[in-house]
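User: Some background: our group keeps a shared notebook of sequences we're curious about, and every so often someone picks one and asks for a predicted structure to add to the entry. Today it's my turn. The entry only has the sequence so far, pasted here. Could you supply the structure so I can complete it?
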Amino acid sequence: MTIQQIMAATPTFCTVNDLTTDAALRMKTADVGFLPVVHDVESRTLAGVITDRDLCVRAYPPTKDGRPMAVKDCMTTHPIACKPTDDVETALNLMDSHLIRRLPVVDSQTNRLLGVITLGDIARSSIVGADDISRVFVEISRPSAAERHIAA
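Assistant: Of course. Here's the predicted structure to add to the notebook entry:
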């Protein structure tokens, strides 16, 4: 099964020049914790990704003058992405090796955002075994060294 068959083909996204408050509102409205970031709405060329954690850790507090910052100032650049023609196992392997739960899906020639695939999408597809999903989820959810130190 290919990624195109199970991806969300109309993802919520934001642009590099949107404010972090706008990105947070889009996440809340769409009930997601991740947005692909594109250079502009017309080209939808992938520039990065931003997560709810990025908003909490990198974008808060706002700038020194109290205004929210632009998404480009706190997003993750050079995101890991996949192509719609990749198989689901490829996406799962990328998620496992990079410890991420969501992947933008882009056109391989233009880097245009086409969709998003999540670990949940893969789990619901029933294509990949439950053991593989569990293994990836455990790895992704493992506390970082800093989190283990705080808990001790």
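Suggested note for the entry: The longest strand covers residues 46-51. The chain has six helices and six strands.
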